[in-house]
Design a protein that fits this description.
The protein is of the alpha+beta class. It is 25% helix and 43% strand. The protein contains 3 helices and 7 strands; from the N terminus they run αββββαβββα. β1 and β2 (37-47) form a beta hairpin. The longest helix is centred in the first third of the chain and has 16 residues, at 4-19.
């Protein structure tokens, strides 16, 4: 069974957290072996009151940042699951949601108590502006 449907379900939780203004940050981590790409961080940004996501790929020697809509970000991030990342961590003010791939590459979603008490500054700014 493919893990993609479970990752799509996880992405729905990402969308909900942005809509509900509880999103703090998203990180792709836990690589398979020693890879050039170490992490990917996803943070919200507002540019002239237009919402987008900053996707920062952290490599051993450099960082590359790109900006995407919510739907584009899914298309950009999905191929990195299982190659090289096994975990995606969504931090919200309500709970931490982890998408994990096990050794058989079966996806699962785990919810835990929240790490962050406040949403991302950009999310808070959107709330204030009513965006």
């Amino acid at each position: 069974m493919s893990f993609q449907p479970v990752f799509a379900e996880f992405w729905e939780k990402v969308k909900e957290s942005i809509e509900n203004k509880t999103y703090a940050k998203l990180t792709l981590a836990k690589t398979i072996g020693d890879t050039e790409l170490k992490n990917i961080y996803v943070r919200p940004v507002l540019n002239d009151d237009v919402f987008s996501l900053s996707v920062t790929a952290r490599y051993k020697t450099e960082e590359i940042e790109s900006f995407h809509t919510l739907d584009e970000a899914y298309i950009v991030l999905a191929p990195y699951m299982n190659n090289p990342f096994l975990t995606a961590l969504l931090f919200t003010t309500e709970n931490d949601i982890t998408f994990k791939l096990n050794k058989k590459r079966v996806g699962s979603i785990i919810e835990q108590a929240p790490t962050f008490k406040n949403a991302s500054d950009v999310i808070l700014e959107m709330k204030e502006k009513g965006l």
